[in-house]
Amino acid sequence: MARIDLKNVAHSYAATPSSENDFALKKLNVCWQDGGAYALLGPSGCGKTTLLNIISGLLHPTQGAVLFNGTDITSRSPEARNIAQVFQFPVIYDTMTVYQNLAFPLQNRKVPKGEIDVRVRRLAEMLELSNYLSRRARDLSADEKQKISLGRGLIREDVAAILFDEPLTVIDPQLKRSLRSQLKRLHAEFNHTMIYVTHDQTEALTFADQVIVMSEGEIVQTASPQELFERPAHTFVGRFIGSPGMNVLPCAIDNTHAILEGHAINIGRAITLPAGAERIEFGVRPEFVKISDSKDALPVTVEAIEDAGRYRIARLRFHDLRLAAILPESAPLPSGTTRIIFDTENTHLYADSRLVERRA
Amino acid sequence: MQKTRDHKALWLVAPALLLVAFTAVIPLMTVVNYSVQDTFGNNQFFWVGAEWYREILRSDRFHAAFLRQIAFSATILAIEIPLGLAIALTMPKKGLGVSVCLVLMALPLLIPWNVVGTIWQIFARVDIGLLGHTLNGLGIDYNYTQRVGAAWATLIIMDVWHWTSLVVLLCYAGLAAIPPAYYQAARIDGASRWAVFRYIELPKMSRVLLIAVLLRFMDSFMIYTEPFVVTGGGPGNATTFLSVDLVKMAIGQFDLGPAAAMSVIYFLIVILVSWAFYTIMTRDDFESSGGAQ
C-alpha cells in the first residue's frame, strides 16, 4: 500500500511533441493518499486511461516523475511497482480454469500453494465464482469473465494500489451495482489505494471519496462528490456532473447582480472578477431553479417537460438562453410562460470557465 | 400461417451447384469410373470391379512411395511449423520493419513452383551450382543426383525455403490479432516471457496454426513439381513420392485403371489425414471442464 504522487507529469503519444496540443496529458501534479478511494471521471479521450497507465507503469511519461511513498519509481516496470490493474474488457487466460486464472498472479510471485488456495477460494466466494472454479475460463459468459479479471486484480493483498480502467463497462446494470458495492466493501476491508477510471458519473460518485474530473488532458477539479455537486470549479464539471447538468449562461456583472439578457439577478454578494477575464458566465444547477410568482422573477417560456420518474425536468427559454429546471413530483406543471427564481446561495459565477470564488 | 411452397431457392443454389459439379464432382467421378474398368485402347472398357484397388494396396511400389511421402511431410511439418512460429514471434510489431519483413517473407511464395525447382536444381549442382560446388570445395561429399541423403536434404531445404514464409505470415496475422490488453495484463500479473507465449500467444494462435498445419500437410503430401524438376524422383526411386509415382504410372506407362485407383486412394488418404489433424487440434474446443488444478 502506498501514497502515490505525480510530479509535473505530462505525456504525449507523439515522438517529438512540439506544441501543447500534442500532449494527451498536460502537465499535472497529483497526490493520492494511501488507502484512498479515488475516481477519475471524464469523457472518452480526456486522458484518464493514459494517466492510469502511467501510474501502473505500462506507459512511461514524456515528462515528470511518479513517486510511491516518496520513492521515484518512474523507470520501474509494472511488475516491480507491484500494482494491480483491471482492464475495460475481460482479459482471461483461455486455456486455464477459473481457479488457475485467479491463482496466476500469485504463482508468478512464488506464493506458497497453500496460501494461494486459501486466497483463491475466499475471493471466489466474494465474487460468486465458487461454482465455476474448475470450469475452463473461456467457456464462461462475458460477465463472469470480467469477474475473473477483477479477481486477478484483487487477489494480491500486498499491492501498492489497485487500478480499475472502466471495469464494469461490459457488465449488465443489475450486477454492476452489486459489484460496485463489493468493491467498496473490499476497499473498507483491505484499505488498498484504489483508483477507478470511468466516464459514468454515478459510478464515480458512488465509489469514490475523492473524484478527479478530467477534460482534454487536464484535471479540472478534485473534490468530494458533494463538493462537485455544490461548487463545480469549472463549467465543464457543472455540465458533466448532474442529470441534467448545470445551467451555464453568458452574463454581465453589475456589482451584486448578474445581468442575463438585460435582466438583473441578485447573487447576494459583491463580485471581483479576475483581471483580464473575457467570458463571464452564470451557473446554477437545475435543482436550484424554482417556479415563483415573485415580481422580480425571470419570465421564461416553457418549451418541454420531460418525465424522469421521480422528478420532472422543465426545459425553459429566456430570450435566446435555454435552461433546465427540476420540478418536484408534487409541483404543478407550468405551461406557456411562467416565472422562475434562483436559490441565491447556489448560484455561481465563472470567468473564462473557472469559478470565481465567493469571499467569506 | 400458410407455408409457401415453391422452388425459387433452387435457382439460387443452382449456379454454385453447377460450378462445383464441373470443377470437382464430374472430374472426380470420371476418375472413379476409370478406376473400376480396364481398357486396351480403342475406347473399349471392361468392368474389373475392385481389382485395381486390390493391386495398388498390395503393391510394394505403392507402399514405398507412401512411406517416403509420410516421411517427407512429417519432416517438413516438424521443421516449418516451429520455425515459422519462431520467426513470427521475433518479427517487429510496428514501424517500417514490418513492411520490409512482410515483403521479404512473401517473396518465395510468389515464385512459380517449377521455377523454385529450377533455382534449386541449378543452385545445388556440383559442377556450376553455388551450393553444390561450395560444399564439395569444403570437402563435403555432396551430390544430389547420386546420394539419397543429399537428394532428400536438398528437397527438404528447398521446401523449407519455399513454404516457411506461409507459416510465418499466418502466425504473424494471428499474433497481430491479440489485443494489447492481454500483454498489459500479463505484465501486471508478472508473467514470464514463456508464460506469455504459453498462456496467451499459443492459445490465441491455435486456429491459425491449425490452418498452417493443414495447408502445409496437404501441399507437401501432394508435392510434385519440385522433386520432379530437381531429382526426377531419383536417385533410383529415393525421392519418388506418391504424386511423382502416380504421374509415372498414368502418363509414363499409360496404366489408366491403376492410376485412377491410386488417385482415389491418394485422395482419401489426404482427406483422412487432414480430418485427423483437424480433430486432434480442435479437440480442446469441444471438451468442457478439467480439474481444479
Overview of the structural elements:
The complex is a heterodimer of chains A (360) and B (293). Chain A has 360 residues and is α+β, with helices and mostly antiparallel strands. Chain A has 9 helices and 22 strands. In chain A, strands 6-7-8-3-9-10 form a 6-stranded mixed β-sheet, sandwiched between helices. Chain A has a 5-stranded antiparallel β-sheet with strand order 16-20-17-18-19, with no helix packed on it. In chain A, strands 2-1-4-5 form a 4-stranded antiparallel β-sheet, covered by helices on one side. In chain A, β4 (63-68) and β5 (71-72) form a beta hairpin. The longest helix of chain A is centred in the middle third of the chain and has 18 residues, at 173-190. With 293 residues, chain B is mainly α. Chain B has one domain: MetI-like fold (Orthogonal Bundle), CATH 1.10.3720. Chain B has 12 helices and 2 strands; from the N terminus they run αββααααααααααα. In chain B, strands 1-2 form a two-stranded antiparallel ribbon. In chain B, a hairpin with a 5-residue loop joins β1 and β2 (45-47). In chain B, α9 (193-221) runs antiparallel to α12 and α11 (242-252) runs antiparallel to α12 (256-286). Chain B starts with 7 loop residues before the first helix and ends in a 7-residue tail after the last helix. Chain A binds chain B through residues 53, 56, 58, 77-79, 83-85, 87-89, 91, 93-97, 99-100, 103-105, 108-109, 133-136, 139, 149, 152-153, and chain B through 179, 181-182, 184-185, 187-192, 195, 199-200, 203-204, 284, 288-293.
